[in-house]
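Supplementary Methods S3. Complex input for the iron/sulfur cluster-bound model.
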Amino acid sequence: MAEDFNTEQKRYLEGFASGIAAARMTGGLSLGQAPAGGVSEPTGPDAIHIKAQEKTVKAGGKLCDQEKWKRAENPFEGHNRLIEEAATGKAPKPEDNFRWRYHGLFWVAPAQNSYMCRLRIPNGILHHWQFSGIADLADAHGGGYAHVTTRANLQVREITPEHGQPFLDGLIDLGLTARGAGADNIRNVTGSPVAGIDAQELLDTRPLARSWHNWILNDRSLFGLPRKFNVAFDGGGVLPVLEETNDIGFQAITVREGAAVAPGVWMRLVLGGISGHRDLARDTGVVLRPEDCNRVADAILRVFIENGDRTNRNKSRMKYVLDAWGFEKYLAVVEEKLGRKLDRVDPAHVKPRGGFDRYAHIGVHGQAQAGLNWVGVVLPVGKMTTDEMRALAEIARECGDGQIRLTVWQNFLFSGVPDARVAEVEARVAALGFTTRASSIRAGLVACTGNRGCKFAASDTKGHALVIADYIEARVTELDVPVNLHLTGCHHSCAQHYIGDIGLIGAKVVVSDEGDTVEGYDIVVGGGFGDSPKIGTEIWKAVKADDCPGRVEALLRAYLAGREGPSESFQA
Ligand code: SF4
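Predicted complex, serialized as C-alpha cells:
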C-alpha cells in the first residue's frame, strides 16, 4: 500500500482499516464521525469511488496512476488551481492533463502543442445559433475549425492554455458544456439523428438522451469511473445509432401480446459494447419502460464503479466485469441495487425491427411531417472551417427548422426543410464545397483524428482517408452502392474500424533492415452494425499507407465481381 499513496491518503486508509477516525481527504470526501472505538465510513459523492479503490488495495492491487490522481485531488475541486496555472501559458503536468479532461480539455502534444476541447451535445442536436457560436469561439480561442466526431459531437482544436477556460466559459454562454467529455467519465450521449422526424421510429430519443445527459451532470458520484463509458438510445427508426458499440445501449422495440410484460413500446437493454476490444453489446433480455432508463443505467454504473478494475487500464471497461461475472450475475447485483426485479421478455415476443437505411444520413429524405425534409450533408472526414460553420448555420436558420443534427458518421443533417427550399439548400451546400449527393465511398468515410492531432496515432488517418476517397472515386466509377470505410489511428478505435465494411487501423510498417518505418495500416473487412452487427476480420497486416488505395480498390473490385447484384451488401 505504501508506495501507492501519499502520506495523507495512507493515513486515511490505515485509519479506516483499524477503526481510528481518519483525516479528511481532499477531493470532496467528507468522512463521517467515527463512533467511539468504531470505524468511520467515507461519505459524500466520492465515497463510492474511495471504497472501490480501498477494496482494490486491500486485495493487494496496485492502483493505476489515474486512480491515484483522482484520489490526490478531485478534478472539480481542483478546477480553480488548474485555471490559474493554465493562465500562465504552461503545458499541464500529466496528472493535470488528466484532470482537465473532466472539463472537456485534452492536451494533445506532441501532435499539437495545445488543447482540444470535446463538447457534450445530447443526441447530437444543436440550434443554429449554438453552431455559429461555437465557430466564433473556435476563432477567438482555437484554430478556426471544428471536427464532427463519431459520437455525434464537436471537437475544437489548437486552444492554447490561457484560452482553455475562456473557451469553456463561452460554451456555458451558449447553453452548452464540455463537463465530463473526457477521462474516466460518461461520454456524449447519442441518439437517433432523425429523432422526432422519422416516420418509422417507435420512440423519440431526444428527451431520453437529454434527460440522461442532465442526470449525469447533476450527480458528481457518476464521474471518475474505472474507465470511460458510453450510452446510446436507438428509437427504432431508419438510421442506426451504433448502440451496439456502447457500454449500455437502449433499443426501442415493440412487445407483442402474450409476453410477460404489457404489449407496447419498451426499451431493450444491451450491454458491453466496445468495438475496439472486438466486442459488441449483447441483448440481456431485459426490457424497460422508457422513463426507467435513467434509474437502471444509474444502477448499472454503480455496479461498475464498485467492481471495475482500477489497476489495469486495458481491463478496466465494464465489458471485463461482464466477462468475469456473466450477464446474469451482473444483472442480479443491479436488481439488488434497484430493490426490484427487472422485466424480461422472450425475443419471440418482440416484433421484428423496421429496416435500416444505412445511408439515410446523406441526401434528401421526407420527414414524418408532410412537406418537410431532412437533408444530410457529407463533411469530408468531419472537418469544417469556422466560415463554413457560420454559413451552414445560416442555411439551417433560413431554410430549415433552425437545427443542425450531427451524426456518428461524422456528417450532419438539416431538418425541417420545406419541399420548396430543398433545391436551395442543396445549391448553397454545394457552393460551400460540400455535397448532399455523396459518392458511395465518401458517404461512408469515417476517420479518427490521426497523427495530425493525436499522439497515439500511428498514421495520418484523415489525410489518408481523403487520398483513398479521391483514388477510388477516380477509378472505381462502377461502384453503385455505399461502402463504409473506417480509418482509425490506434487500438483505441475511435473510428470503429472493426464495424466498417473495410476498416484500417494505423500501424508502423518496417521498411528496412535498420528498422526504419513508414505509416501504414492493418486492414480488416466484413464488419457490420445495425441489422448485421459483426466484428471484421483482419486480412492484411502492415500495409504501407501508399499501398492502401490499391488494396481498397482490389477489395471493391472483388466485391463488384463476386456479388449477385447491388442488393448484396459488401459484408455478405
Ligand atoms: Fe487518437 Fe487512437 Fe482515437 Fe485515433 S483511435 S483519435 S489515434 S486515440
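DSSP finds 16 helices and 23 strands in the chain. Residues 1-6, 8-37 have pLDDT under 50 and may be disordered.
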